[in-house]
Design goal:
Hydrolase/PRTase-associated, two-stranded antiparallel ribbon, 15 helices, alpha/beta, nine-stranded mixed β-sheet, 16% strand, 433 residues, Emycin_Estase, 2 domains, EreA/ChaN-like  fold, Erythromycin esterase
Length: 433
């Protein structure tokens, strides 16, 4: 919880005082905030490089009003794909801010697809629930990763349902990841049968049976596997996929766009972890087509390049930009407070979510550098900033416990993102369980 400043403490301690006294303190409080922000702006503007384009943001009840970010929103609106990154996979403030941005981009900038870092097939069936009368919460538990099973994101989906009921141009929910395969295989089966492509449906049934076993192993954190048998099963999935691909191409089958995307998601899985960012980018571009799309994923994935010299992870945003130049990448970060995550190695739909305390930021790092600015929150307009000379490591927090937190190689922040929002102290989301 954020500490109360002196003015708030006085007014809350003596609630029975006359209204005009509360009004005076409120005006003094606002004036003091303006003074602090004024001198903060003067301080950062006196610097060079990206620091010159840092704009302090006001937090009201731990939330950032997006009216402070209208220039950024306008710039986002001029793009076809916008990546809304998160500095951790479990931060309430990041969720709240992105939900506000999403509503604005949908209502006023024409965006119609929200694509999550979630398995494509699972997200497809969840989207059907959003556009029905079924329980959104139960749908989230069935089809979305535990990371996304929280109260904030539930309110977003409830809002989308209501929006779609009163608008002819619907908003759809999709996924660009591929850690689960069975539902993608299920889409291939159903779409093949619709087109009377029964030999293809038969191959897809074979894929579905193998995918069910793979998904079960993923749910079990890949524990207790017979390695020799497991290797054979992975080869079997790849072999069936090749047969499906060959059948579609050689026989020039009239398959639907949905079927093609489902096949692409299984093909993306086959590239392995090293190819994940490039494959997610191909998925995102395929899903977006000619629509305007918002992506909800970790900042390191939505970055314009990997923050590592060996390109081991991250940079999906850069691959997207190669295909769709009208791409905007927003990163987010924090330094203190709590975040949500779990002890498991793999992200599943049933991870038991926990709240972890963020450890102190390390020296040197971008996170320490920003924390030492003593601003509650700020926006850095990196796209329009001068190129700086400062290179620092960036803290990388996924969903694991504090001992699994790492730092990237030293890198210039403006090489990673078009914009960056830093919130000094944050909290974990309100998870379902």
């Amino acid at each position: 919880m954020l500490k109360l400043d002196a003015f708030a403490l006085i007014t809350r301690t003596f609630p029975g005082r006359m209204c005009f006294i509360n009004g005076i303190f409120e005006r003094m409080k606002k004036a003091s905030v303006l003074v602090v922000l004024f001198f903060s702006v003067i301080r950062v503007l006196a610097q060079s490089g990206p620091e010159k384009h840092i704009f302090p943001l006001r937090l009201d009840e731990r939330k950032i009003s997006i009216t402070q970010l209208q220039p950024m929103i306008n710039e986002m609106g001029a793009n076809r794909i916008v990546g809304l990154g998160e500095g951790t996979h479990g931060t309430k403030e990041f969720n709240d801010l992105r939900i506000s941005l999403i509503k604005e981009l949908i209502e006023n900038k024409g965006f119609r697809i929200i694509c999550f870092e979630n398995a494509f097939g699972d997200a497809y069936y969840f989207n059907e629930i959003v556009n029905s009368s079924g329980s959104i919460k139960e749908g989230m538990k069935k089809y979305l990763l535990s990371l996304w099973q929280n109260e904030e994101i539930e309110t977003l989906f409830e809002w989308i349902r209501e929006y779609n009921r009163s608008h002819s141009e619907k908003v759809s929910v999709s996924g660009m990841d591929f850690n689960y395969l069975a539902n993608a295989a299920g889409i291939i089966i159903n779409e093949s049968k619709k087109a009377n492509l029964y030999p293809l449906a038969s191959l897809a049934n074979d894929l579905y049976r193998e995918a069910l076993q793979y998904d079960a192993a993923w749910d079990a954190q890949m524990k207790g596997l017979d390695r020799s048998r497991w290797g054979g099963q992975l080869k079997s999935i790849r072999s069936i996929l090749q047969q499906i691909d060959s059948s579609i191409k050689v026989d020039k089958l009239p398959v639907s766009e949905l079927l093609q995307t489902a096949v692409l998601s299984v093909r993306a899985w086959s590239t392995g972890e090293r190819g994940r960012d490039r494959s997610m980018a191909l998925m995102a571009v395929q899903i977006a087509k000619n629509s305007k799309m918002i992506i909800w994923a970790h900042s390191v994935h939505l970055a314009l390049k990997s923050p590592f010299k060996d390109n081991s992870v991250g940079g999906c945003g850069g691959y997207i930009k190669q295909e769709v130049p009208e791409y905007y990448s927003l990163g987010m970060g924090t330094a203190a407070g709590k975040y949500g995550g779990f002890d498991d190695r793999f992200d599943t739909r049933t991870n038991v979510m926990k709240r972890f305390v963020l450890p102190d930021v390390k020296h040197p790092s971008w996170d320490e550098y920003f924390f030492n600015m003593k601003l509650p929150a700020f926006f850095a307009d990196l796209r329009n900033a001068e190129k700086g000379t400062r290179s620092l490591p960036l803290r990388l927090i996924g969903y694991g416990p504090p001992q699994r937190i790492s730092y990237s190689d030293a890198i210039k922040l403006e090489e990673l993102f078009d914009g960056y929002i830093f919130i000094s102290k944050t909290n974990a989301p309100g998870y379902f369980r």
